[in-house]
């Protein structure tokens, strides 16, 4: 797991960003809350980006070279900010 938060310095809404292998998870605090399909109001989005190549510490700029991505919405109480993103979310 590689912490890639510094690659998102231009985005103050990014809370955490981590890469592992060919995947990157980006946790974003939403400016406007979103109503989920279960009628709960989410205030965080988790963006899952997948890449063609493995993200390595010496070439972290590749987190912006995205082959595909998707997004899920989360309540604050559903997130453990003490844990890593890959520890608590399984997007694949």
Radius of gyration over alpha carbons?
13 Å
Order of neighbouring strands in the sheet with most strands: 1-2-3-4-5
Helix count from the secondary structure assignment: 1
Secondary structure: helix percent: under 10%
What summary fits the major beta sheet?
Answer: 5 strands, antiparallel
Features:
92 residues, mainly beta, 5-stranded antiparallel β-sheet, 5 strands, globular
Describe this structure in words.
With 92 residues, the protein is mainly β. The chain has one domain (2-82). The chain is 4% helix and 42% strand. It is built from one helix and five strands, in the order βββββα. The protein has a five-stranded antiparallel β-sheet with strand order 1-2-3-4-5, with no helix packed on it. The protein is globular, with a radius of gyration of 13 Å. It starts with a strand and ends with a helix. The mean pLDDT is 88.
Topology:
Layout lengths: L1 E2 L10 E7 L2 E13 L5 E10 L17 E7 L10 H4 L4
Antiparallel strand pairs: 1-2, 2-3, 3-4, 4-5
Compact summary:
This protein is mainly β and 92 residues long. The chain is built from 1 helix and 5 strands. The two termini are 16 Å apart.
